[in-house]
Amino acid sequence: MQHISSLTLLLAACALPTFAQADARVVTLDEPASLPVVGGAGRYLIFHLPHARRLDVVDVVKGAVVQQIPRVPSDVLFAAGVDQLVLFRPNSRVLERWPLGVDSEGAGTVARSAQRTVVVPGTGLVAGLHLGSGGSGPLLISGKPPALYELETLAPIAVEGELIGHASKDHPAAVGVSADGQSFVAIRKGLGPVHWKRMRVLEAATVHTEQFSSTSQNYRLARPTADGSMILAPGPRLWGDDLEELSRSDLRGQLCLPSSDPRYFLAVRFCELSGWDVAGIEFRSTSDARILHQYFGMSEMAPSGNTRSRSRANSILGRGAYRFHWFVAGNVLATFGHDDRTLVIRAFDLETAMVTPFPEVASVLPESVSPGEVFSHQLEIVAAESVHCVLLNGPQGMTVSPAGLVRWPVADDREEAARVAIEISARCGNALLFSFELGITPRGADPVISAFSVSPASLPTGQTVTASYTIANSGDSELVRAELWRSTDLHGAPNADAWQLVGQRSHSGNGRTTSSLSDIPASTGIYWYGLHVANSGGNWGKEPAIKSVRVD
Prior knowledge:
- The chain has 3 helices and 48 strands.
- By secondary structure, it is mainly beta.
- The strands form 12 sheets. Strands 40, 42, 43, 44, 46, 47 and 48 form a 7-stranded mixed β-sheet that branches. Strands 1, 31, 34, 37 and 38 form a 5-stranded mixed β-sheet that branches.
- The relative contact order is 0.11.
């Protein structure tokens, strides 16, 4: 088939880096869960399963649920620090502290009861718990009024300074907290425009609170980076340590998220690539917001299923902090899909990925295929290490092996071109989104067998059977050959597994042609004969009806 330069250009334009599927681990929760809370300095993701009435703790390094806390209410509130998990039961106003993580032998911690339990005094609203994932407190309780608690004793702290996190049932608070647990950012929901406030915890039970920029967006959760030196908000909007807004036009249309390391943050967006939606993720430095590495792909995060709108997907992502979670120290990126129950965990080492070349594809594919054809192509992949191929987008019936063998039985009635996307990922985490299109070339008209007969109808062993036929062809192609096929009898019909080619004759031209082929059956029995005719366009015609003879 022909090869064209424009196809090569299309491949080059769509050969974008994507996040590796190789060695990805998938944790499927028992039911749709809440957006996770982060603990253990980024190692643990804690999910609330409302129907099961429990909290599941997933270790992203091990890729497994390592702890479960049972019998929690449907309206439970919870937060996690470096080695403690705190939960609040609204009906009883009980605040509990549980151990977080795994024991020394690596088995899941089975905590039958909380390490400490207290009752939150008063009747005021408790709207949320907020704790730095890598710190040991303090615990901020947002509500009416907000309060600050000491994590070890679960005792309220007499604070000098203004607390943030004021909330009511009609206007809850969106609160973000740095991983070290010393910087909090809060803003009221349901009102607008309203201002953000940042609160920093100082020594001697003192907090320092400052008001800064405002917004009227529906989703407005601002998140401090791991050490609180930068604040990330939808828009995207960034503020430095001095609360001066940083202008970055290249971040427009993206959502910025903190990582577990103060040196880095993520910029996420959804975009359309060659006709389908993909997630884009950039790894950036907090010092100057420059891109260190980027990928496109991650099919479980693309806005499909519950939404096909990229803006809607961004809105959903903006309301929750941890659809994407990068645990830098563990070299792990975890994504929580839009089905709210699938967590995909991939190994990712930024330093290695930055110096290792991306895979390349040297293959040149055909421009088109024909209906009824079985398309098969082994991708020629140039890579520094072993790769793993995954089909992200393609027509029904197409398969791609891990080594890159593409196979597609094209349907006889296929008319629409096929768009294909294959993720080719190296073990280090670098990957390629390889995209191409296969057009459909019409097969043209089949040759016609207008007459087919076999004689005699019965004959003795060793005599000749003559198959006579009349064939014709039309269109640009020409006749190529006629083939005579024979099968033995099975219960009064041809044996489908016994057909064999017993004779063929070459033909040419398009006109009406009459000819014959012969065969000598080797033994007694009933035999069935059929005729196939091929033309130069790759099309086939077959006999109007198969014929039988008896050999005595």
